[in-house]
Amino acid sequence: xxxxLRILIFYSLLFTIHYSLPxxxxxxIVDRIVAHVNDDVITMSELKERSRLENRDEKxxxxxxxxxxxxxxxxxxxxxxxxxxxxxxxxxxxxxxRINAFILIPxxxxxxxxxxxxxxxxxxxxxxxxxxxxxxxxxxxxxxxLEKYLQEIREKATIKIFY
Amino acid sequence: MRYFAAIILFFFxxxxxxxxxxxxxxxxxxxxxxxxxxxxxxxxxxxMGIQLGQPYSPEAIREGIKRTFLxxxxxxxxxxxxxxxxxxxxxxxxxxxxxxEKIFINDIDFSGNESIPSRKLREGIIMKERDEYRKEILxxxxxxxxxxxxxxxxxxxxxxxxVNEAEPYRVNLLIDISEGPETKIKAIxxxxxxxxxxxxxxxxxxxxxxxxxxxxxxDKGLRNIREFYISSGYLIPEIGxxxxxxxxxxxxxxxxxxAGLMVRxxxxxNTVFTSESLMxxxxxxxxxKVSEETIQDSAESIGDLYKKEGYYFCxxxxxTRWSDDKKEIDINFLITEGEKLRIKSxxxxxNxxxxxxxxKTLITTKEKGIFTPGYFDKxxxxxxxxxxxxxxxxxxxxxxxxxxxxxxxxxxxxGYINISVNExxxxxxxxxxxxxNTVFxxxxxLKLLHFKKAVPYNDVDLGEDRYRILxxxxxxxxxxxxxxxxxxxxxxxxxxFINFRIYExxxxxxxxxxxxxxxxxxxxxxxxxxxxxxxxxxxxxGVLRSIQRVYRLGLFSQVKFEPVDLYSxxxxxxxxxxxxxxxxxxxxxxxxxxxxxxxxxxxxxxxKNIGGYNRQVSLRxxxxxxxxxYAIGFKEPWFLNNPIDFRASIIKEEKRSxxxxxxxxxYETKRTAGLAGIEKGITDELKGSLLYQYExxxxxxxxxxxxxxxxxxxxxxxxxxxxxxxxxxRDDPFNPRSGILTGLVAKFATRYFGSGVELYKIxxxxxxxxxxxxxxxxxxxxxxxxxxxxxxxxxxxxxxxxFLGGRTTVRxxxxxxxxxxxxxxxxxxxxxxxxxxxxxxxxAFKDLGLITFVDAGNVxxxxxxxxxxxxxxxxxxxxxxxTPVGPERLDYGHKIKREPGESRGELHFAIGxxx
Lengths: 163, 915
Known about the structure:
heterodimer; A: mainly alpha; three-stranded antiparallel beta sheet; elongated; B: alpha+beta; 16-stranded antiparallel beta sheet; four-stranded mixed beta sheet; 40 strands; 42% strand; globular
């Protein structure tokens, strides 16, 4: 009985200490700015959330987020916004209009690619895989130009990173 | 014991980790702000938008950070949280907003720049005063300055920038330049096919060996060379970019010049225009070439010039001869001018709904008349036909067609225009349907529309009515509302059925208003001018009105007010108000001339934004031959946080009243006054004020005849309250064309306020302006005043008495000469006056105007009934010349009943209208 009382007292004591502890332990940062991109900011909580969602390193994710903000501000600048549309669709439209629209793959280039990678097509005729090759080459070119485009708008923007 | 230790450890570690970042379910119990300097902590708290007692929410914190950042003054914002004990064992969260402000540039100064003025350097760099300070562009600035120096001939300038902290978050930049040696021109040459002698070209270049290599001068020289070639007939010279080779501090410059095509132009048969004036009209060169096409275009533009002057049948032919080597061309324009064609008559047929007279005034083509030359231009007639069709369409004749033709008499000097109209059927509004409206009733919407039943239908008004419905909705926050406007016609097109389908959507409210760009001005000063506030329904009109009100503070050169997120259909929108501050100080001066006071000048220094609170001070000095005046003024536009002006000023003045003919002094005064009080605009047009004034006035050098009471000489202390009310609906205070100005000003001085004299004084005024028709204004004014002494004061002292006569009162009489006079003929002034003026103002030619006027009025002294005279009448004429501060004027007033010994009338020269 005495023992039980002792344990009880002990636990209640522990309980009090435990709940008053955060008071002693002090404050912690719950959110903050990690980067400015012109008039937009990216906060730590956004970064953490996205990094968890994408399961990628925060630094890498932050870079992606900055690009996204830059592209969105381009969407707004060029008046390509449509109410009620999500950011992704708007960015895709921007890429379509500003980059994809200018890409043309000449047939010689596609054929060249076919000849170089003939073994990978398993003996299929060029005309059968032409669309596939075209698609691949366009995507490759898009990525290349998007990177250049991003670099251009990055140079014009004011970006500060606190991370 | 070991067992216990394990338990303790376990309990200590585990729950602690679970606690991190998890404050959900708790309420915000305290908010603190740290790190603010230029803004108040309340501003941050308000922008963060989290209220005490609100549940803890990471989303709200994130939104708050983003919103606060938009304010534009914070570099870094972090929020920390901490659990705190509340009463009754409850727990809450204490939030701390930790901010760091951006650093701005206060001042940019230059030193060591002996050859280039600081102003030029300041304009040439991207960093400006009041911008955010960014370390990373210091190198850009250095590069920019070096480039400027290099252009001016200093290729070895060294630039260093010192950054000094002026106050917290504000830096001063000192840009130090060591200019180094100048680059001198060692040799200068011309190559290519210059045609002219090289010495001649160098002379035109205006730069010679030994000069400093200044790119600005070099560019100017190259332009000179180009001009020189063009004026010599080489219309397309090729002047290359100079090749510059540097050797130490010297440079050699080589310019390549190719004269190009020689063009000789000749005109034949031109009598109306000189060859020089035709030359200016030629678009001979396009894309650096003279071609058949450009020559044809030139001929056409010559033809157009003639047609504009009425030479409708003018003919231009061109004769072109190229030299064999294609290096020269002769162009000969042969002009057959022909006779001038004038329109004798314009005839309309087929018009029933609109009279021919009305159509005639509508169209730009005019018959020959006193004021119209009656020239004919085919394109203008085409435009007229369109205007007629538009007029008919506006009246519901949707398929109206018009056609215009011209015929000539035998001599081809007179033309006859015939315009035939096919009106078609008029379409009338039969019914208007409104659907989808829940916020406004059908009646409310119909009342607003231009279209009513039985009104002629047209498409333009349909668009206008759709817009009216949209703006009605936008006033209640329905900015996403859509209106489809459709119309259907009856089979014979005589009836229109209109259908407005309204999609109301949800109304929008304003979240928070974020104010940005105000580095000196306090947020509060701007916020109190806003008509729309945090949490209000979004009202576009209110937004526009707020912009106007903020502009009217006079502190900003730019004001923008729009939602942060323009694009998404949010129901709650944060608004960003961006301002650009301008210099709050002003310096003004002016000089004027009048016949009474001769030259008169003023100087004013003012500052409009003391401490960022829009408090204003001004220092003004005025001096003329008969008057000197100095004043210090202070104004607080929101007295005790109410929209009431508080004003205070100290005035010192010295004045001499003179007889304009003999230049003799009637009396002199020295006055020192202090006044303070409030002024309130009750509406935009109605203004009331209440001022307390203490003045000390010394009157001396007074002519004996003007003295009627002992207070007329010596020093007086007058302590008074001065209420006034003024209604002003005039369209332009300097040159009114419509509206009224009416008001009452009173002064009440008694010994209970400590006044040396006791009196009351009331003046009333009523002026009325009416535009009779364009360029003619009728102006009428009545003024009257009453001043009475009471208590121990026997009569109103001279400085408070009324005087009439002169440039703004009764213009047939000299300044201040009406009313009772003393034994030596000096006017004494009176304690009652009445004055009426009437003017007809015509604007004659450009800024010049003519007026005729009638003045009537006089001054009386109630204590001296023997000297009561009838009103004096004057008629007159005047000239006006418009300036931005009102007209300069010259008036002659003629006395209607002249007394023996008086002049016939008086001439006045002054600035501003008489009333």
